[in-house]
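Here's what a typical entry looks like (dihydroorotate oxidase (fumarate)):
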Amino acid sequence: MTKKNLTTQLAQVTFDGPLLNASGIHCQTKEELADLAATSNLAGIVTKSATLLPRTGNESPRYYDLAYGSINSMGLPNLGYPFYLDYVQQETAKPTILSVAGLSAEDVLEVLMDVQDSDYQGITELNLSCPNVPGKPQTAYDFVATRKLLERVFAFFTKPIGVKLPPYFDLVHFDQIAAVLNDFPITHVNTVNSVGNGLVVDVEKEQVVTKPKGGFGGLGGAMILPTALANVRALRQRLNESIAIIGTGGVTSGADVFAHILCGADMVSVGTQVIKEGLGVYDRLTEELQAIMAEKGYESLSDFRGQLREL
Ligand code: RRO
């Protein structure tokens, strides 16, 4: 099979292919990041969402594997933003996306001011959707707070920056978040974060499967694919053309990558399936995607990106 051209552009950065790791997946420590740098068919590296101060995260067990996906309540464990900012300024094997999060608007602004003042010229991603910090709501479900925060960010931030969004479930909410985002020069949206505050029940033990927050946690993996595709599609239909989309959620096969791109994704990231299968998943997904493209006669991703047909 001849290799297809899978080159992808995002925020004027060229990636060798469409695949990324989802933030939080094998990207917290120096060793994990080195593994990603050495992973074939992983086109870029997304770092674990970084906060002002290092965090150990929530109590274990905080991740649970399911036949149909996963539930997590990690609670933002990370080494603190200076570690990741330092890392992305050194990494040269592939392009990076520096993910940042905050426990308050002030925290976020402090971190982003340092990113602005650093030598890092790559892409930053502001996580507005962590579902797992007790007492902290997911910012992007509050459209007024999201607008206010972005106004404060763009008062000083001039580097490429996108946002990580939670899943939305109502068409009016797609309209509302798109109306906010279209007012700012963001490079991309990454959609979706895990489906927040699901609850998995072990019937035999009559108990929950993760410890933090009484068992409530973010859902990922195959079970969220239709939600993820809906969010990619609905946002592509509403966002300015200049705003790219990273599709995240539910990818277990090359067909799922194809579906994300068909819905309008520029790039696609993989989370739960990396944990199930290991970093070799990116080779398998790429082979499967190429086989589908060959069968359909597509030469590049732009041949079918966003071309989903309605009945
Ligand atoms: O660390 C987490 O608990 C976590 C984060 Br920050 C996030 O954005 N999404 C998620 O599923 N878990």
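The pocket of RRO is lined by residues 24, 49, 72-76, 101, 127, 129-132, 193-194, 218 (CB under 6 Å).

More examples are in the samples folder.
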